[in-house]
Amino acid sequence: IGKEDDEAFSALNTYILEKEKPTLKQPGELMLAQASRDYWEEHGKHAVGATSEKFVYERVNRSKLIHLYASQLTQGRINEHVRACQAEGYSNGTIRKDLEHIRAALNYAHNERRLLYVPKFKLPPAPPPRERILTPDEQNLLLSKIKTPHVYNQVLTMFNTGQRPGVVSSLTWF
Question: Given 76, 85, 135, 163, which residue has the most CB atoms within 10 angstroms?
């Protein structure tokens, strides 16, 4: 290997090391809006149940929390947010889902080496699970109202497997 090759190899190594250098930020340097947007663009869009996740992403981006830096996300602010959302009529389940999105976005930023550490906060208590089973008459009524064959098949698959819409939508046939 000649001198030119050594120089090219050295330049390439320097470039790769600089490119791979972590871009860690302190929580005071990363806004929740940026973390949420990155999480949605790079992960949420492609997740199973992306349609549902998009509603959460959009709701979170209308909240007052989104304009904060990660370091400003204190338990006091979380509690204030929970009370405000409850006053607007949101359930603890909805509020919890929104805060889980924020937590996931911050964890994603941390895992992608964009955030030095993730601020800790507690979520409101989880609501009891809801289970509503349609009677055979209700199932037949619902199926009779569906006009599109692929939607009919999807709902029928959901009835027969007990799976949620996002899971059934993500099925692929071989």
Answer: 85
Cα separation, 161 vs 172, whole angstroms: 15
Q: Return the amino acid letter for 166.
A: G
What does the block give as tokens for 134? 């349609």
- SS3 assignment for the chain: CCHHHHHHHHHHHHHHHHHHCCCCCCCCCCEHHHHHHHHHHHCHHHCCCHHHHHHHHHHHCCCHHHHCEHHHCCHHHHHHHHHHHHHCCCCHHHHHHHHHHHHHHHHHHHHCCCCCCCCCCCCCCCCCCCCCCCCHHHHHHHHHHCCCHHHHHHHHHHHHHCCCHHHHHCCCCC
Give residue 158's pLDDT band: very low, low, confident or very high (50, 70, 90).
very high
* Per-residue tokens: 16: 């790769």
Return d(Cα 158, Cα 136) in angstroms, integer.
Answer: 14
Q: Tell me the per-residue pLDDT of 87-116, one tens digit each, with 9 for 90 and over.
A: 999 999 999 999 999 999 999 999 988 898
Q: How far apart are CA 67 and CA 65, in angstroms?
A: 6
Rounded distance, CA 54 to CA 60, Å?
10
Nearest-angstrom CA–CA distance, 20 and 2: 27
